[in-house]
Amino acid sequence: MSEPVSDSIRAGAGEETAPGAAKAAPVSGQLLTRYRGRFTGNESDHDLYETVDLAFEDHERRWSGALLARAAYDLDGRESGQDDFFSLQDTYEHRLTAQLFHAYVDVASSSFSLVRLGRQPAYETPLMLYFDGVRAELAPRGERRATLGAFAGVGDHQYESSSDGDFVFGTFGSMLVWPGAELRADWMHLEDERLGAEHEDDLLGLVLGQDILGEERATRLDLRFTSLEGNGRDVRLTGSHVDSRANVTLQGSLYRLLQTQHQLAAPLDPFSDTLFELFPYTQLGLSAGKDWEDFSLLSGLDLRRVEEDSDEGEFNRDFERYFLTGTLPEVLTVSASMTGELWRATDTDYETWGASLARAFEGGWDATLGSAYSLYEYDLVSGEERDHVRTTYLDLRWKASLAQRWRLRYEFERNDFDDFHEVRLEYAWNF
Question: Which residue among 307, 328, 330, 384 is least packed, with the fewest CB closer than 10 Å?
Answer without folding.
Answer: 330
